[in-house]
C-alpha cells in the first residue's frame, strides 16, 4: 500500500508541475520532482534517475578560479542548485608558518528548490578536496596551511580551481552506480557498455547470425594484416568504452599479423599481459593468441581482420618489420604517451564537461594516490615537452605558468616517435603497429613527417592501406553473415562498424591537430 501511495504521489507531482509550469515570478518551488526521487521505492526511482543521469555526470565542470579578494576579482557563476554564486580567497597566517594558509569564501543564493544542494571540488596542483552546500548563505572552506612556497605563489597568482558536480550529490551517486557496471564482468556490465556507446557515440550493435566465430584458414592471412578488437565487458571493456568515447574510435585494442620465413603465423601485440600481470609488447604464435581470444578472454571481444591491399602488401618490407618487432619484444606497453594521441587541440578533444582543467585535477589526484603510476603515465612526457627533467606534476604546472604558457597548450604539443623514455621508446597498441608499418616502408616517402604516436585507433583503420575489393577477401570472410562488411569479422556477437574505414591517404604531420568531439567526431581536412 505504501509503495502504491508513493507512486501515486510522484505521478501527481509530475502532473502538477507539467500542467502548471509557470509560477508567479519570484515564487520558489518547495522541491523539484527529481529531488525526491531517491525517497521513492528503488524499483520506481532508479529507472527514472537512470534517464536523468549517466556516467558522464560524474565529470565535474570547471567554473573558474577564486582569486585573492584584495585583487578585486570575484568569481561568479550559476550552479546546479544555487543560481547565484560568488567566491574569493582570503589569505591568513593563523598557524604562524612561513607561508600561512587561506580561506575560500563561497556565497550561494537563489536555490531552485528547498531540497537541492550543490557539490564542489576544489583543487590546486598540490591537493584536491571537496565540500557541499544546501543553505543559502556565505560558506567558508579553510586551507589551514599551504604546502610550501610553490603552492602559496600558485594560489596567489592563479587562485583555487573550483569544479561543480552538475548532477549534485544524489545525481553523482546515481552516476557512480551507472559507471560501476562498465567495469564489471557481467551481462549487466556488457549492456551498460553498449548502452553508453549507443547514447554518447551513436554506435549501433546489431546481432550477427551464428556462428559468431569464423573458421579461419591461416594460409589467407599475411604479414601486416591488422587486427581491430573491441572489448565490451569487464575491466578492459570499461576502459575501452571511455577511450572510444573521447577518441571516436570504434575499436579499443589492436594487434598485427606476421609470418616468418617458414610460413608460420604470429601476432604482435602491445598490451599483452604476461605471467606477472605486466602489460608488455609480445610476439605470440597465432594458435596461442587465437586460443586466448576464443576461450580465455572474458571481455567478450569483437574482432575484425583488416587485410592489407595487394599493392600495400607488395610494398611491405617483411624483414624490416620482423627486425622492428623483435627489437620491441618484451618491452613495456606505451603508457607514457597514451593520452597524447587523443589530445591535439586546446578545446576540440574534450567531450563536455571534460577540459584541460579537469585533466590537470585528475592528474593531481593520481599524483597523490599513486605517484609512481602518475610518473609513468604523464610526468615524464610532460617534462619532455617542457624541456625539463624530473619535475613533479605540481612543479610542471608551476613552471608552465612561469613561462607564460598554459597546461592545455602543453598537452597539445605533438608526440615525437624518436622520444626516449626511461624504459625506451613508448608505443601503445596502435603505435606499435604503425611504427612497424613505418619501418616496413608503408609511409614512404613521407615517413619522416609522420609521428605515429599521434595516431588513435580510429586514425589507423582510416588509412587507405587495406583491401578495397571484396572479391579478393578470403572465402571464409563473413561467410555466414547476410551483410558483407569491407573487412573480415572473425569473432563477436555484434556486427562491428568502423566509420571512415580505409578512406584516408597519409599526409605530412597527419593527426597532429585533429579535434574529436562526439557524437559526430568531425575532422577537418589535413588536420
TrEMBL record:
Alphabetical UniProt keywords: Membrane, Transmembrane, Transmembrane helix
Transmembrane segments: 6-24
Keyword Transmembrane tagged: yes
Protein name, entry field: Inositol-1,4,5-trisphosphate 5-phosphatase
Naturally occurring in which organism (per UniProt): Quercus rubra (Northern red oak)
